[in-house]
Amino acid sequence: MVEQALGLAGKMLGATAPKWQRLEVICEEFLGAHASPDDEAAETILHAPVSDWLEPVKEWLEQQTRAWSFLDRAEPVAAPGDETSETDPWELDAELRRLAGLRARWDEVFGHLAMLFRMLGLWRDAQFASFGHFCDERLGMSRRAVEQRIWLERRFHELPALRRVLRERRIPYEKARVIASHATDANVGELIARAEGMTCIALRRALEEEDEQRQICARKEMDLRMPRSVAFLLASAIAAARKAAGRWIPPSECLRIVAQHFVDTWGPALKRASTVERRVFARDKGYCRKPGCSKAAAHAHHIDYRSHGGSDEPHNRVSLCAVHHLRGVHMGRIRVTGKAPDDLKWEVIGRRRRSTER
């Protein structure tokens, strides 16, 4: 029932909408028709005011900072060359490569220092109101973003193989973050090998789907990462389901009731006739199949054109986004051959070759 509700929500929001966004609209629909046990309490949880003590402390610290404004500011570092002299391009090239080398280690060094800064409570010694205040004032980043870097640094300590391939630049930082969310000592090598041949988005989707299927089949549970606001919304929906039932019921039964309400409400409105195009979209999970693309599918392209005798069967159709279909395939920049979904061959045709073929 939950999967059916999530599927209907995906039709409303689009195939690229993550599951936490789909769960959000499912809970909002239920709460729109069922009151929670304490509406005022739920409103306070979802829209909690900022603590009264935090803003005065921030203002006091800003006053202290202005007290030191008389100190001389550091002069900006001059770039190599100037308007009156000829700039050596190789000098600029060497400087850019040096800076790029420093930038390559930035994420790892940042996570390590942030972990130490928080673990040792150094933000208190620096006279900040909270660790979040330090992140906002000094780093220009949200506390959640910095805590994600700290979490990844801890995972690097647990998975040294992942840190090694990151330093060797076999995978980028974002892929390492995705692998760290799913890897264990036993499968980290396998995930690294898969990551080298996939885009970051494709890797994340594949691993999340595998984890979800494993949880549902083995433990009959669903582990879903979501923002805190959606978690509060889910808790309010569960409380509303119990109030409507008039007794205490398990969270799983509450979730089934919430999902059932969404399906009963939106199922008839979103019911559409089964066509070949929709079956192709369902087979390809609603995404463009062009390697490296993560956009939602817009068209079901005929691999062998109908004008050339191609059939309308699913094996002759592949899901493509509008850009890759209209500007890629039909403008001669991309060619796809074979049979869908697992026997496709993609070819990118350069401008020079395309003009020669004409």
Structure, briefly:
The protein is mostly helical and 358 residues long. The chain has helices at residues 2-13, 19-33, 39-46, 54-66, 89-104, 106-119, 122-125, 131-139, 143-158, 160-167, 173-182, 188-195, 200-218, 228-245, 251-270, 276-283, 322-329, 351-357; strands at residues 299-302, 317-320, 334-339, 343-348.
Structural description of this entry:
The protein is mainly α and 358 residues long. The chain folds into two domains: 1-50 and 100-271, no CATH class; 276-357, no CATH class. 59% of the residues lie in helices and 6% in strands. The protein contains 18 helices and four strands. It has helices spanning 2-13, 19-33, 39-46, 54-66, 89-104, 106-119, 122-125, 131-139, 143-158, 160-167, 173-182, 188-195, 200-218, 228-245, 251-270, 276-283, 322-329, 351-357; strands spanning 299-302, 317-320, 334-339, 343-348. The strands form two sheets. A two-stranded antiparallel sheet has the order 1-2. β3 and β4 form a beta hairpin. The longest helix has 20 residues, at 251-270. It is globular and about 75 Å long. The chain starts with a helix and ends with a helix. Residues 40-50 and 352-358 have low confidence and may be disordered.
Major sheet characteristics: 2 strands, antiparallel
Low-confidence stretches: 40-50, 352-358
Mean pLDDT: 81
Strand content: 5-15%
Instruction: Give the tally of β-strands.
Output: 4
Shape: globular
Question: Rg, please?
Answer: 27 Å
Kindly name the structural category.
mainly alpha
Helical amount: 55-70%
Helices and strands, in N-to-C order?
HHHHHHHHHHHHHHHHEEHEEH
